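Summary of Year 1 activities. Much of the first year was spent building the evaluation harness for sequence design. The harness presents a backbone, in tokenized form, and records the residue chosen at every position. We chose the following record to illustrate the format because it has been used consistently in internal testing since the harness was completed.
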């Protein structure tokens, strides 16, 4: 073994040792000082193994790469979210939360040692190609996808270039082949639409540094037209999560007091409880939150907090079930370690780890028939042969005696100028798609029904 290789090994041994002390803290250091023999025996076992492999493996191998792989394997053995972050991966972490990038727009995790889709980002090439939450990516450009960091790196690339994916999907007998053209992935994470006067829809696609500020802007814009919001649909479907404090801030917008989230670690040093504060702007209108299997992490924090406080009705299907907290510690040479240090709990004390948030109203997603309304399959009087006609036939159109014709669900009222400006910056939603979405339509029905029941008088 050359002197250069030996120096590399010593560097990696030092990095591994320092990283353990950094993350596990002073208590571990005291244990190590009192009984360091097992630790150094482990280090010797590792270095002896790598030295043997480097000298005897059929092909020449790099000692640094071996140590990197060994460290990665150690962290992956703990849970799916702990990992060694290479210098490139550390840069990706910053890009994911702050800036735009070019790629296909997909959030992935390592599940059962397979690269698995948490959710595609709405409006991106992956979304348009039809990639779904739960898809398992087995090859990227014909090369087996085994490492999470490498998979992310290979799927990103210059705008206009193509990446070929081979993936397995539950229910499909054969692997799917997809060729996806990379594009710039937008940094905006909030989209908004007025479904009808007084009823707003907001889609939060992920949690970035500016998400809570964008949500406030969207709500203000929808309320700026003179008609106060009487109900809100908060869509967190296929939202893979993101920055914790953004989930806290968004939950706080709709809660005036009480616990939002508690975080509990092994020895108490990572324990923390987050509380709601009284809001200057009161947003007390009813809320329906939409979730599905692609709603993870920060999405589940928001859904769980609003559900436990009975501040929102949760509609859809069970969420992803990521109830753990990770910290990232730099360990030198541009590397970092992402380690799971705690679990989080909703205000009622429940952990959603590997369970997910259960909806109050379970409705599976489907595209509504004919893109407009669900066909009524029940037989009516008018369907019977030789039925009597009404004595005075009238138009089928519903009218309001004060305001004239009531618009159908898909008809659009004029957006306030502030909402037009917001949509121009964040890109508009497809209204036809919203009104073809049975979960959105059911949520809107619930909000409108609530308003009707509230106005009913006894007697």
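For this record, the design step produced the sequence shown next.
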């Amino acid at each position: 073994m050359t002197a250069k290789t030996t120096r590399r090994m010593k560097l990696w041994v030092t990095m591994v040792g320092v990283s353990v002390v950094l993350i596990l803290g002073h208590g571990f250091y005291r244990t190590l000082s009192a009984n360091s023999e097992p630790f150094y025996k482990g280090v010797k076992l590792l270095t002896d193994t790598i030295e043997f492999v480097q000298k005897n493996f059929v092909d020449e191998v790099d000692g640094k790469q071996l140590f990197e792989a060994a460290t990665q394997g150690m962290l992956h053995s703990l849970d799916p979210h702990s990992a060694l972050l290479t210098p490139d991966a550390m840069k990706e972490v910053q890009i994911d939360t702050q800036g735009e990038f070019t790629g296909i727009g997909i959030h992935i995790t390592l599940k059962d040692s397979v690269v698995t889709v948490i959710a595609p980002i709405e409006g991106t090439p992956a979304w348009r190609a039809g990639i779904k939450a739960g898809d398992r990516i087995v090859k990227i450009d014909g090369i087996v996808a085994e490492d999470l960091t490498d998979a992310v790196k290979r799927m990103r690339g210059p705008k206009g270039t193509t990446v070929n994916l081979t993936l397995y999907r539950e229910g499909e007998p054969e692997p799917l082949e997809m060729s996806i053209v990379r594009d710039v992935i937008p940094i905006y994470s909030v989209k908004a639409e007025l479904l009808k006067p007084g009823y707003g829809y907001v889609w939060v696609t992920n949690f970035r540094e500016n998400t809570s500020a964008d949500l406030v802007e969207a709500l203000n814009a929808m309320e700026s037209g003179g008609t106060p919001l009487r109900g809100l649909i908060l869509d967190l479907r296929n939202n893979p999560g993101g920055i914790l404090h953004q989930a806290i801030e968004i939950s706080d917008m709709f809660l005036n007091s009480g616990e939002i989230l508690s975080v509990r670690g092994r020895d108490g040093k990572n324990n923390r409880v987050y509380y709601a504060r009284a809001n200057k702007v009161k947003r007390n209108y009813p809320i329906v939150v939409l979730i599905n299997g692609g709603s993870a992490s920060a999405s589940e924090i928001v859904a769980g907090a609003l559900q436990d406080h009975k501040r929102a009705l949760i509609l859809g299907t069970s969420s992803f079930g990521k109830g753990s907290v990770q910290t990232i510690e730099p360990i030198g040479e541009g590397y970092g370690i992402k380690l799971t240090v705690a679990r989080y709990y909703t205000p009622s004390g429940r952990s959603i780890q590997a369970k997910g948030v259960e909806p109050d109203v379970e409705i599976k997603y489907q595209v509504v028939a004919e893109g407009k309304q669900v066909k009524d399959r029940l037989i009516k009087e008018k369907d019977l042969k030789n039925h009597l006609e009404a004595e005075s036939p009238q138009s089928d159109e519903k009218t309001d005696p004060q305001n004239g014709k009531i618009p159908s669900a898909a008809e659009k009222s004029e957006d306030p100028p502030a909402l037009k400006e917001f949509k121009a910056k964040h890109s508009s939603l497809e209204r036809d798609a919203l009104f073809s979405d049975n979960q959105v339509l059911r949520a809107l029905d619930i909000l409108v029904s609530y308003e009707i029941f509230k106005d009913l008088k006894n007697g």
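The first helix runs from residue 3 to 24. Quantitative recovery figures across the full test set are reported in Table 2.
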